[in-house]
Amino acid sequence: MAGITSNEKPSPSYNNGNSPLSSQTASGEEAGRIARPKAWIYKPLKLGPLSLPWYASPPTQLTMVAFVCFLCPGMYNSLSGLGGGGQVDATAANNGSVALYSTFSVVGFFAGSIANRLGIRLTLSFGGLGYCIYIASLLSYNHNQNAGFVIFAGALLGVCAGLLWTAQGAIMMSYPNEGSKGRYISWFWMIFNLGAVIGSLIPLGQNFHSTANGVNDGTYIAFMVLTFAGACLAWTLVDSKHVQRADGSHVIVMKHPTWKSEILGLLETLRTDTYIILLFPMFFASNWFYTYQFNVVNLAKFNIRTRALNNTLYWLSQIVGAYIFGYALDVRRVSRPLKAKASWVVLLVITMVIWGGGYAWQKGYTRADTSPESVVKTDWKDPGYVGPMFLFMFYGFFDAAWQTSVYWYMGSLTNNGRKLANFAGFYKGIQSAGAAVIFRIDALKAPFMNEFASCWALLAGSLLFALPVILMKIRETVPTEEDLQFSDETLADVTGSSPGVMSEKA
């Protein structure tokens, strides 16, 4: 990925200028040498003339986590983007999704404590297996219409996904220095959505000459193999306590986590960082619109090959959105509080513009107009296809902009890996509660315009709730001493070097 190399200059330390860590890091950088353990995971990698970061570096670990998500939720997203899990009728997939997001919302809220206790590898690997089982249930449904298996697999996936996404969020927000968080989020989001793009090409290729409305068995089998590979890849990661940044510092975690300490830590987060509740409406809205976009727009209006094309373009647009927003949020010439305010304004503007265009499109049809028994679905060769194609692409761009901004807001509030795991758990849990509600609403055959209106209203309203956090809580930097208050680590534990200790070059 462009930018993830060992030649990248270390970002400014995430401490105020008077912190002991700031001065110690500066002296280490000036000397050009950082104290690192001698284990192989801390040795830079060489591929001919190309120099890569060491294995236990944040860029390497983030890239590996991104490829886990590329293979697991990336494949799930490409299947979900077809609408109805690739089925002709969305009912079974909708009911499975209700079960998925119901358990996801409960487990996700507490998953920060679980991930902190179990560690990254076990949490991510167990999370990945759920995606394989869920896709297997859709393959089974193709042959025996066993809706119970789909619902069970959905509920299991909710548990697994809650753990996977919480661990991923903690890594993405806590591993980079403050000046690199936007880029790390964008790198992850681009790689992850590349999985959805490639996954979308599978049904597009297999159904290129088909005008049917459901995918074939080969699509499901391919996705099962890829998601299982993702679960296995998670075991190659290192745990957070072994990760060392370019400036020699370490991720702030608990050295000796217990179930009691992590459950109490969750409660402590809610007590000391109560303002996070104002971001909950943004969390709730962040997956709400998927049901509308995939089922009401893509599934309802287009045949399978056109849905696959739309799906590919949707996730490609996510890559563009993540790149633009992630890098813009790391522009060093602009202060972090100002970037937070500017991103809020941009989100508000694109919410009004893109969803305003969506309103114009939605006025053209109702649920009764698109019943599977009577409607002839639109093909990409039909007149008038280009307009909704671009609308669907802008929906993908908007999703990436929203998700990137929310993660960046959370990452700007603290650098403590333990607290960020809890923030990520809140985010995914509340996000999934919203998804469970809207999937159920769609399963009950709510009018399409009602679903659209709920998306637009939630997105715009949640931005207003978040405004006080944007204005008053995002600072230029968070002192390390403040972050350490939520950990049993000391300043010496996270500096990564001691005066006079020198070793290999960073």
Mind explaining what this structure looks like?
By secondary structure, the protein is an all-alpha fold. Helices cover about 65% and strands about 0% of the residues. A hairpin with a 2-residue loop joins strand 1 and strand 2.
The separation of the N and C termini measures 20 Å
Q: How many DSSP-defined strands? A: 2
Taken from the alpha-carbon principal axes, the silhouette is globular
Tell me the major beta sheet: 2 strands, antiparallel
Strand order, largest beta sheet: 1-2
Order of helices and strands: HEEHHHHHHHHHHHHHHHHH
| Tally of alpha and pi helices | 18
- DSSP strand (E) fraction? under 5%
Instruction: Specify the helix fraction band.
Output: 55-70%
Radius of gyration: 23 Å
Unreliable runs, pLDDT <50, ≥5 residues? Answer: 1-32, 497-506
Structural class, by secondary structure, is mainly alpha
Mean pLDDT: 82
